[in-house]
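Hey forum,

I'm writing up a methods section and want to include a predicted complex as supplementary material. The small molecule is zinc ion. I've pasted the protein sequence and the SMILES. Can someone with a working setup run it? I'll credit the forum in the acknowledgements.
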Amino acid sequence: MSSEILIVNAQVWDGASERRFAGHVRVVANRIVQVARGERPPAGNARVIDAAGMTLMPGLVEGHCHLSFVNVATNAELGEIAPEEHTLRTAHNARVLLDHGFTSAFSAASAKPRLDVAVRDAINAGLIPGPRLRAAGPEITVSGGLGDERRLHLYRESFGLIGDGPVAIRQICRTLVREGVDTLKINISGDEFVANARAETTPLDDDELAEVVKVARRFGKMTAAHARSSASVMMAVKHGIDCIYHCDFADEAALDALESVRDRVFVGPAFGLVYNTVHRGEAVGMPRAVAEAMHLPRKFEACVATYQALRKRGLRVVVGGDYGFTVTPFGTNAQDIELFVRFFGYAPHEALHCATGVGAQLMGLGDELGAVREGFLADLLLVRGDVLADVALLQDTGRLAMIMKDGALHKLQPQTMT
Ligand SMILES: [Zn+2]
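Reply by user p_vandermeer:
Happy to help. Structure tokens for the complex are below, copy them as they are.
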């Protein structure tokens, strides 16, 4: 059945502009074929959906996604889950994400090598609902780095793949390529959650990072990096990492380095986790004293300063906030858009553009996704209310009257049918 859908009487937000406009949008198969202003075009054979003044906008793109992070309290918990259960729970998260209006997701690491890959392939085969997915492997790390939870007396899996030296790192990368990932994720800096390698340390060596980029280039894969320290940001820029996450403690030189490559790199604060651990931690058993002992409020301040600066410097910033922990439950991902407005100084349409157009570029689909434009892929949302007046509306799934991915209706509230 070749589908044709005409969405009439919408307030169209095109994915970039400051304002919406009254219009009608026709979708044939999986493409937007007509964006009409003014008078309603004839329906022809199309099924008509009456938007009744709702916002019609591009589907959201989660730019720092961990589909296999299943609302755990600690990183080590991810290692406890058997692959079979973990796959099902990852598939569940894929559905949850699409239910919340995210029609695309760029993975910032999977907790086991094939979780993203298997779920991506199942989504593409039509076996399960979920967003367009760029699959990553686990975070590649070194002994004692983020993702290594072992002790001398205790073997313990976590969410990292651990290697030391270029040979070991190369083998991990080649293995992940063999297993079908789209993106290699490398942990360059430490993290607050690692006792002896905090966020401002840089455990990875240059020759180890070079291997990741070399393998990725050879096989046409993307690279993403966990980089909180200034030194790690500098290394990521120097080696040509495609997506540099966090950058919280970037100093002036690191900010300059990022700006020098702003046309080829993406950055992402993964701010939801930073914000929630400081401001909502009490509710999930992370008392303020614990947050302070881990220097989380300091990181929060650093992250805010960094992204105010990166916004002004014209970097391409993606939303996505490390959702998938107890403190950042899956499905609350759209909170990041509101945080971009509240803390980084983005106008609502700019923050929404980070969550649509910029995300689409990160997906490698910038010329056919992330905008309501003729010829573009039909990933569309109908939202009750004016999202430019209040971006937080997107956090309420009750307001998502329609979710369309690739021309297919994932959700349509009955009152919109005519
Ligand atoms: Zn992450």
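Some notes you might quote in the supplement: The first helix runs from residue 77 to 80. The chain is about 30% helix and 20% strand.
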